[in-house]
Amino acid sequence: MKQFFLFSILCLWANIIIAQTSGTASSGAMGWRRVAYVAGSGGRSFGRVTVFTEGGDYQPIVTTIDWAHDWSSGAGIRVNSDSQTTQYWRAVRITDDGTNSYIEVNFATTINDVHLLLDNYGWRLATLYTGTLPAGGGTVRASANVARFGIEDKFIIRHNGNVGIGTASPQAKLAVNGAVLATEVKVKTDIAVPDYVFAPDYEVATLAEVEAYVKEHRHLPEIPSAADVEKDGLDLAKMNLLLLKKVEELTLHLIEKDKQLDDVHTRLNRLEEQNKSTDNQ
Length: 281
Prior knowledge:
By secondary structure, the protein is α+β, with helices and mostly antiparallel strands. It contains 4 helices and 15 strands. It comes from Parapedobacter koreensis.
């Protein structure tokens, strides 16, 4: 029984050991370099390659690349990295030349000690390059920026925490290139809600002042111009509160105009009564 148990453990270790093929290479130069290839049959395959540095002259960094390549232009690529930085390589892609397909890495600097791991699972496994990595090329079928997690330009989580949907380079905590559908959107902001407009000492710009401003600038006071929105985008929280402020100011103007109309009606009624009184005399 003990012998059988030991044999089972050895078999398990053997499976773990042979589950990956390793290699060491040099990038040779900056730019796109091939790290693995699938020979023949149009490069049809799927699998996983890991690129990493062990330390020494280089900070330990690891990036895992999953890919799939079909007969023609059908291909997909995904990256995953638990490292906090990506200073040695920027992006990955899968290319082909009509016969073979290639997994390529865009190196940001020359690295003389690049370690490669090929997981021995998948279909039509790739072969790792060794020595000096050859330059990349061919037709690009899919690509992704190196990040904590990235699926081509469909979804990405950058090392700085920015999340992008439909964009490979999100410039905010969440950047969406496309329509957003939601059942509810709630924005929390530290911008003061403009209830101060109704304070007794708040001075509302006269309509004449607003007219003069609009004639000169072609937009309402405090509201960004079309050129500003085109350049900087639209801050929805700020814009909603600015619009609320304009509605409140407009409400004050309407209240004032209503009082003026009431006053006019009152005077007209008095004048009418005086005229009637005069006619009766």
